[in-house]
Amino acid sequence: MRFVVRYRWVLFAVLPLLLVLLAAFPAQAEPLPLPSLNIGVGTASKPGDVAVTVQIFLLLTILSLAPGLLIMTTSFTRIVVVLSFLRTAMGTQQAPSNQIILALAMFLTFFIMNPVWQQISKEAYQPWKAQQITQELAVELALKPVRKFMLSQTREKDLALFVTLSKLPRPKNADDIPTLTLIPAFMISELRTAFQIGFLIYIPFIVVDMVVASVLMSMGMMMLPPVMISLPFKILLFVLVDGWELVIGSLVKSFG
């Protein structure tokens, strides 16, 4: 009884709404048709049906692996590692955020890889779309610009390492190196280059930290964290030297 008295205002508010709905949908009205969806596995009537199904499955598999391919075969790895080093060296915690770093790295990757993708579109995708070449030949032609880009950024020492680990015969030229051997060698070379750039980025910020720590110690403020004082100076230094232009410009030019 207490429940009904307490919530009687809710009943009074809902009752008119129910009456309006009943008036809008009379009892003799036909039920609204609902769509149906059937998913099943049937018997193929011709071999072409099986081929189309396999192609769709392979396409979905490639799309699910697209982020990994973007990371492994493009400039994305070097850029995102360098930007992470930059944020850590400045000590700004989560500024810029991970989303901004990933977005900037992604669009810089699109900018750097645009000539390669234009070549793929011109030599592989457009002829295949016009049915001038087969799908196998299109894949082979599309791999050539990507392999050329990776080979230009990969050290011979890293290539030799993975050729030795794979126990393959010594390749006579770059075309004899398997793609599955080239990709990990390319990633290791990218990480090495990114760490080299990160070391150079750290140096000026470490100098600022050391100067601030020395000044605070000479003033007897040993209990005051130097990072709290040095952070504004590091941000000011980065802005005065136009740090974003220097870092992004050096990153893009490193792929030249």
Keywords for this entry:
256 residues, mainly alpha, 11 helices
Portion in helices: over 70%
Q: Structural class of the secondary elements?
A: mainly alpha
* Estimated share of beta-strand residues: under 5%
The major sheet is characterized as:
none
Note the overall shape: elongated
Strand count: 0
Mean pLDDT: 77
Rg, nearest Å? 31 Å
Helix-strand sequence: HHHHHHHHHHH
Low-confidence stretches: 1-7, 17-22
The number of helical runs is 11
The N- to C-terminal Cα distance equals: 81 Å
Quick rundown:
With about 260 residues, the chain is mainly alpha-helical. Helices cover about 75% and strands about 0% of the residues. The termini are far apart.
Task: Give structural notes.
The protein has 256 residues and is mainly alpha-helical. It has 11 helices and no strands. Helix 5 (76-90) packs antiparallel against helix 6 (98-129) and helix 6 packs across helix 7. The longest helix is centred in the C-terminal third of the chain and has 40 residues, at 179-218. It starts with a helix and ends with a helix. The model is unreliable at 1-7 and 17-22 (pLDDT under 50).
